[in-house]
Design brief:
Helices cover about 45% and strands about 15% of the residues. The protein is an alpha/beta fold. It binds NADP nicotinamide-adenine-dinucleotide phosphate.
Length: about 260
């Protein structure tokens, strides 16, 4: 295949959780720019619908669905709506995520649990429900969203729950890659460094200079830094790549 064919997502259908804003929106936009139809979900339907309208202007079909990834019934409804409209799901990007900060010795178990529930259990539920469709189709690419904090101790904020959830995402990614390779399903993860989004606005405002000093590329992640990696992992360009966690962090994790 030619390289433009390898990266082409025309005719594919991508589901992006947490696609209403932030990194999920950036990745959904990239997949649309490569030709994929897009299904966006998050809890806030209106924000999802606004994002879907913006992406539709790129000339692809879109669908917005309200879904809380912690709840299997919501995720089943998401899959049903995607199949009703498009009849298939080729790509799943698990970008829905949250964070909660407290010193490890003081963190309440409820605050530990709420981050694990969204970032790790929610990712697993989405993999399970979309994975059943991909297993039937004998093809699929799942892209989990990890974090640089899955592989290094955190010198910036106290969010051990978040780091642990993303470490779990990495382990889940590798194990699912092994289990589902026989079904022609690839499972990889992207581990972003620090990007300015709703999730990180306050930490970047307070500690942005320290983050930049700890980053060899000497900057925060930008509006198109995830576009290439996500299209690579979603498309046939990476058809021999599975079980990998790709850091997109300006080198933060190698310091
Ligand atoms: N920004 C960074 O620097 C950075 C770095 C590394 C990794 N990440 C990861 O990247 C992913 C996206 O983060 P972001 O920075 O783009 O954050 P963001 O701007 O706050 O976006 C988070 C998205 O997840 C959705 N969401 C939150 N809880 C949800 C739930 N229970 N069910 C369904 N959707 C839910 C949000 O919409 P609703 O609130 O409407 O549900 C929103 O669409 C997360 O997994 C995060 O851990 C971010």
């Amino acid at each position: 295949m030619r390289v433009d064919e390898l990266f082409d997502l025309s005719g594919r259908v991508s589901v992006v959780t947490g696609g209403s804003m932030g990194l999920g929106f950036q990745m959904a936009t990239a997949l649309a720019e490569a030709g994929s139809s897009i299904v966006l979900c998050a809890r806030n339907y209106n924000k999802c619908a606004e994002a879907a309208t913006i992406i539709a202007k790129l000339g692809v079909e879109t669908l917005a669905v309200s879904c809380d990834v912690r709840f299997r019934k919501d995720v089943r409804n998401l899959v049903m709506r995607a199949l009703e409209k498009f009849g298939r799901i080729d790509v799943l990007v698990n970008s829905a995520g949250t964070a909660w900060a407290a010193p490890p010795e003081k963190m309440k178990i409820a605050d530990w649990q709420k981050v694990i529930d969204v970032n790790l259990t929610g990712t697993f539920i989405c993999c399970q429900e979309v994975g059943k469709v991909m297993i039937r189709n004998k093809k699929g690419s799942i892209i989990n969203v990890s974090s640089v904090l899955s592989s290094v101790g955190n010198r910036i904020i106290d969010c051990i729950n978040y780091s642990a959830s993303k470490g779990g995402v990495d382990a889940l990614t590798r194990d699912l890659a092994v289990k589902w390779a026989p079904f022609n399903i690839r499972v990889n993860a992207i581990a972003p460094g620090f990007f300015k989004t709703h999730l990180t606005t306050s930490v970047i405002e307070r500690r942005g200079n320290e983050i930049i000093n700890l980053t060899p590329a000497a900057r925060i992640g930008g509006d198109d830094d995830l576009k290439g990696p996500v299209v690579f992992l979603a498309s046939d360009a990476s058809k021999f790549v599975t079980g990998q966690v790709i850091a997109v962090d300006g080198g933060y994790s190698i310091m």
